[in-house]
Amino acid sequence: MKIVFDDKFNNSEYSTDPAAAKGRLDGIMEIVNKNKKLYEVITPVPAKDEDVLRAHTIRHLERISMDGLLFELSALAAGASITAAVEAYKGNPSFAVIRPPGHHASSDSCWGFCFFNNISISLLRLFYEGKIKSAFVLDFDLHTGDGNINILEKRGDGFRVSILNPHSIGRSDYIREVKAYMESLKDADIFAASAGFDQGIDDWGNLLYPEDYTELGRLMKVYSEKICSGRRYALLEGGYNHEAVAMNFDAFCQGFN
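Predicted structure:
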């Protein structure tokens, strides 16, 4: 399994929000570095302006670029997302361990600790290269990814994207909702996950256990193999209990890989 990561993501000075908190990625990368037979780390390059502008307005790009460090890390996170998408398209399950997150960034605005919409930028790169015509996005973050919806749904360029933000309030119902949605999918050329772990039992959502994340990963694997030759990738979104984020990341990957 490919892990897309750069040490620059450890820089906590780009913002004072919880997603930028120092040490947020340490537990994840400790797990990755201890399991080198399972994980291969790939270093990304920053997204180009043309990549960002497929999802965002020039005005939004210029606003973010006014802060040098924020722009550097946001562009690198978007670039890491593209790398994960490209690897997934080649048949390699991938997870981009990035910050800032992105699913609350719309074309001309952003909030919720997000700046560039990483899912949209990565999927639109594949679409405009003619590699995919459709996609499925599972956003299991505690908070609905309004940016994903605003950018990717109801497009006029022929790109078809189905997005699920599960809303069930019980663990079993949550998993059933995800499974039922995947069973109803007619086609998708790639699966992507906005992988926020703040729905975890030890995080803000206080709902999902590690075994639930394993099942979410397994469902991504099983249904991507049925529908699109196993092409699947995930991008880190929320999750603020650092110890729990690492545990839940590991649990998800056990099912996803």
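Summary: Residues 20 and 41 are 21 Å apart (CA to CA).
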